[in-house]
Amino acid sequence: MNIKTIGMISSYRGLETRGDWLWQQTPNQFGIWGNMQMLALAPKPDFLIMYQFDFPQKSPQKSWLDSFRKPQQPSELNIDSLLRNVDKERIIYLLREPPLDEIVEINNQNYQQAQKYCGYVSGPDDFAPTSDYMPAIWYHSNTFQDLNEMPCPQKVAPCSWITSGISRTANHRQRLDFLQSLQSSEIKFDLYGRNLPVWAKTLGELSNKWYGMAPYYYNLSIENYADNNWYVSEKLWDSLLAWCLPIYYGGPAADKLLPPGSFLRLPSLDEKGIAYIKEVTATPDAWYAAKDAIAEARQIILHKLNLLNWLSNFVTQHS
C-alpha cells in the first residue's frame, strides 16, 4: 500500500512543534491509519490539513481565543510559505471553533481566505462552505489499544465536571453562573479545571482527563455552544471513552452521531437542569442501564468518528 503523508498547521498554541500530533489515536506506530500517515511537520507532505488556522485579518479582533491560538498579523505571515508546495485540492481546512457571536466574524473571514488556498473547507456551522461535524479528537493520554480493548474501569464516585474559568463570552459566563448555582445546591460532584474562579471548589487542573472521568459514573459534558445542528466537541468523546454516562448540554448533532441511550440530555442551565442532575446522580441506575450503549458509542468514536479515519477516507477519495 502506498502510504500518503499528511502535514498539519494550526493556530492553536503548542501544536507548532508537535511531531506526534494524534499518534495516540491509532493502533499503529507513527500515526499510520489505513492508507495515510499523520506527520504534522513533514517538509513535503502529500496532503496538508489546516486545523483551526487563523488567516491574517485586515482588522484583527481580540477574542477569548487569543489565549489558546495565535492571532496572525499580515506583516508576519506568508501563507504560501506554509503550504509546503501541496496542491490546492489536497489541502484541507477544518475550522473547529463554534460560531459564537463574539467570533463569528473571524470565522467567516477564515472561511473566505481558506477557499483561496484549500480544496476542501469545512466547519461546524451553517456559514461554512461545507457544513459538517468536526471529526473526533480526544484528550486522554491512553493508547488507542487501551481505549479499544480495556474493560470498563471501576466506578467509585458519582459525578465529575472538567471545565475552565473562561468568561469572555456570554455563553461562557452562562456556564460559570450554572457552575456557581450547582455548587450552591450541594449536589455531590467533583470539579476539575484550569483558571477557575476563586469561589469555585475545585480539585485542581489535570494533566490527563482520564483521571477526572474514569472513576465516575457520570460526567457533566457542557458545550460552549448548543444552537446549531453541527457543533459537538471532545467534551462528549472524552466522557464516553472514559466509560462515563455523559449528562450532556449541547445541540442535536450528538443524536445523529451516537446510538440512542449513550448519553443523557441536560434540559437547561438553570434550576430545572440542577434538579435533573440531582435526580440522575442520586443512584448509578442510569449508568448501568446505559452501559451497553456506552460501549457501542465508544467503538463509533474510536473507529468511525476519529479524525484519522476521516483523513484516511479523504486521501482515498483524492488519490
Automatic annotation (TrEMBL):
GO terms for cellular component: membrane. The keyword Transport does not apply. GO terms for molecular function: alpha-(1->3)-fucosyltransferase activity. Transmembrane segments: none annotated. Keywords: Glycosyltransferase, Transferase. This is Glycosyltransferase. Residues 160-268 form the Fucosyltransferase C-terminal domain. The keyword Glycosyltransferase applies. It comes from Komarekiella delphini-convector SJRDD-AB1. PANTHER family: ALPHA- 1,3 -FUCOSYLTRANSFERASE, ALPHA-(1,3)-FUCOSYLTRANSFERASE 10. Belongs to the glycosyltransferase 10 family.
